[in-house]
């Protein structure tokens, strides 16, 4: 085979390799979910939840990291509780605003301070999809940001659990509503959390929940998404997932905007709530995307990410 012929053969082979992932994604099927989930991240350190004024008139600032209590290294809240069991004055070494500090805590003062420490971040969201081929899942459609740290936390481990909705605080213009729920931790966890990204949380689906899963449906690419009627799957009572109608009003750059049109959902929630992030969007029987945000002044109006973008960013 001469050199020109080798070049002629190699180029088509290269083109086939380049287009194979696109073709595979085009035929991809995912299971749309909609369950409310409790989210738990085990943090890398023990943090102070908010500012504490000590008996010495020193401040232990919110966001500070507890490094040591006396000579005992602290990595978990259990470590901190173990360290304060002894009586008497204690010396706490903390890292606060980039500087190391030594604080003196009076006898029995540590017992009060310990209640303001944390080593995990909890939250509520919505499960978006399960990939039946890989057994991976995606949820939320946006990043978990710790309220104390005001940023995405570094974590050692993470879990998702099934949550049950007990009450709804309705959204009103200028005041986002939210779901009042409990996390069913007595059950086996649904999955691990391996990534916390601006496109959602992702991890491994773990439990024998398969008998309750709906069937997988084809994903829809941006070019095929239509302005007009669609549905969202979400839970607003107990753990039951229901379908509610919306109208897609804008599709651009792998992002969507929509208006809630379902009278039942509007009556119950006022529109979009905190905790609905991750609710899957379906149009004409295909998987479109996931709810990510609400418009605070217009709670019936929401924003979403396409499931294609979410899926691509999960790896």
Strand and helix layout:
Layout: H1 3-26, E1 29-32, E2 36-48, E3 52-53, E4 59-60, E5 65-69, E6 72-73, H2 77-83, E7 90-96, E8 99-105, H3 109-113, E9 117-130, E10 136-139, E11 155-169, E12 177-183, E13 191-192, E14 195-197, E15 200-204, E16 217-218, E17 228-237, E18 240-252, E19 255-260, H4 263-269, E20 273-274, E21 280-283, E22 286-295, E23 298-306, H5 307-312
Parallel strand pairs: 12-20
Antiparallel strand pairs: 1-9, 1-16, 2-5, 2-9, 2-11, 3-4, 5-6, 5-7, 7-8, 9-10, 10-15, 11-12, 11-13, 14-15, 17-18, 17-21, 18-19, 19-23, 21-22, 22-23
Please supply descriptive tags for the structure shown above.
315 residues; alpha+beta; Thrombin, subunit H; Pdz3 Domain; 2 domains; 15-stranded mixed β-sheet; 6-stranded antiparallel β-barrel; 5 helices; 23 strands; 47% strand; elongated
What's the short story on this structure?
By secondary structure, the chain is α+β, with helices and mostly antiparallel strands.
Give a verbal description of the structure.
It is a single chain. By secondary structure, this protein is of the alpha+beta class. The chain folds into two domains: 28-42 and 120-312, Beta Barrel (Thrombin, subunit H); 45-119, Pdz3 Domain (Roll). The protein is built from five helices and 23 strands. The strands form three sheets. The protein has a 15-stranded mixed beta sheet that branches. Strand 3 and strand 4 (59-60) form a beta hairpin. It is elongated. The model is unreliable at 1-23 (pLDDT under 50). InterPro entries: Peptidase_S55. Pfam families: Peptidase_S55 (PF05580). This is Peptidase. Residues 94-315 form the Peptidase S55 domain.
């Amino acid at each position: 085979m001469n050199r020109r012929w080798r070049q002629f053969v190699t180029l088509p082979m290269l083109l086939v390799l380049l287009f194979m992932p696109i073709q595979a994604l085009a035929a991809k099927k995912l299971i749309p979910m909609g369950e409310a989930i409790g989210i738990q991240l085990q943090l890398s350190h023990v943090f102070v939840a908010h500012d504490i004024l000590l008996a010495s008139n020193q401040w232990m600032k919110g966001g500070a990291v507890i490094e040591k209590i006396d000579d005992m290294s602290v990595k978990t809240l259990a470590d901190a509780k173990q360290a304060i069991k002894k009586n008497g004055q204690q010396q706490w070494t903390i890292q606060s605003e980039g500087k190391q500090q030594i604080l003196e805590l009076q006898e029995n003062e540590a017992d009060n301070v310990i209640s303001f420490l944390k080593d995990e971040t909890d939250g509520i969201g919505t499960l978006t999809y399960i990939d039946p081929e890989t057994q991976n899942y995606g949820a939320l459609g946006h990043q978990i940001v710790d309220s104390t740290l005001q940023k995405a936390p570094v974590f050692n481990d993470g879990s998702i659990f099934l949550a049950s909705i007990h009450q709804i605080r309705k959204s009103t213009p200028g005041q986002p509503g939210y779901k009042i729920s409990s996390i069913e931790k007595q059950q086996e966890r649904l999955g691990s959390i391996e990534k916390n990204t601006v496109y959602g949380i992702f991890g491994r689906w773990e439990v024998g929940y398969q008998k309750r899963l709906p069937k997988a449906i084809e994903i829809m690419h941006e070019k095929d998404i239509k302005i007009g009627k669609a549905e969202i799957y979400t839970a607003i009572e107990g753990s039951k997932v229901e379908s509610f109608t919306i109208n897609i009003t804008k599709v651009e750059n792998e992002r969507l905007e929509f208006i809630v049109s379902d009278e039942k959902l509007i009556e119950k929630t006022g529109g979009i709530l905190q905790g609905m992030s991750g609710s899957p969007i379906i149009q004409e029987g295909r998987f479109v995307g996931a709810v990510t945000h609400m418009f605070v002044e217009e709670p019936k109006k929401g924003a979403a990410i396409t499931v294609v973008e979410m899926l691509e960013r999960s790896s």
